[in-house]
Write a structure and sequence with these properties.
Distance between the termini: 13 Å
Radius of gyration: 14 Å
Number of helices: 7
Strand order of the largest sheet: 3-2-1-4-5
Structural class: alpha/beta
CATH architecture: 3-Layer(aba) Sandwich
CATH topology: Rossmann fold
Shape: globular
Largest sheet: 5 strands, parallel
Strand content: 5-15%
Number of domains: 1
Number of strands: 5
CATH superfamily: 5'-nuclease
C-alpha cells in the first residue's frame, strides 16, 4: 500500500508520538510504501532544521538525520508532472495531493486533516486520514 506521509507525522514520530511512530515504523518494516517528491523532501528538511521543535525529543540531531535517511531509503521517489491547482485553500499543502495522485497512493497521512481534506478536486481512490485511522484500516 502506498501513502504520502505528511511532515507533521514524521515529526511526531521523532517526538515519540505513538500513532505517528507506528506509521513510520510500518514504512521501515515494508508494510507501507511512502512516496517522496521534491517539495515534500524540502519540507521535511526545513522542519527538521527547526531546533526549537525538538526540545523534548528523545532523538538528537544526528539520530533524526539518520532516521530520515533510513526512511528515505524506503520511499518510492515520485515525479510530479501535472499540478492540480488551485485545489486546497492552503497552497502549501497542494503538493501532498499532487504527490499522492502522481504515485497512485491510497492515503495521505496527516495531522492537518482540516486543511488537506477540503480539496476542490475529488480523487475517489485517495483518503486523507489521521495516523490512528490508517493503523486501524491497515490492522497494524
Amino acid at each position: 500500500m502506498k501513502a504520502v506521509i505528511d511532515t507533521n507525522v514524521f515529526i511526531g514520530a521523532c517526538l515519540g508520538q505513538g500513532a505517528s511512530r507506528a506509521v513510520v515504523a510500518a514504512c521501515l518494516e515494508g508494510k507501507l510504501t511512502p512516496l517522496m517528491g521534491v517539495a515534500l523532501l524540502s519540507e521535511y528538511e526545513d522542519v527538521l532544521g527547526r531546533k526549537n521543535l525538538f526540545a523534548r525529543s528523545r532523538l538528537d540531531d544526528g539520530e533524526r538525520d539518520e532516521l530520515l535517511d533510513i526512511f528515505l531509503a524506503t520511499c518510492s521517489w515520485t515525479q510530479i508532472y501535472y499540478g492540480w491547482r488551485p485545489n486546497l485553500q492552503d497552497e502549501g499543502d497542494n503538493h501532498l495531493i499532487e504527490l499522492a495522485v502522481a504515485g497512485g497512493a491510497g492515503y495521505i497521512v496527516t495531522r492537518n486533516l482540516r486543511d488537506v481534506d477540503r480539496s476542490e478536486l475529488l480523487f475517489p481512490d485517495l483518503k486523507v486520514v489521521f495516523p490512528e485511522t490508517l493503523l486501524k484500516e491497515m490492522k497494524l
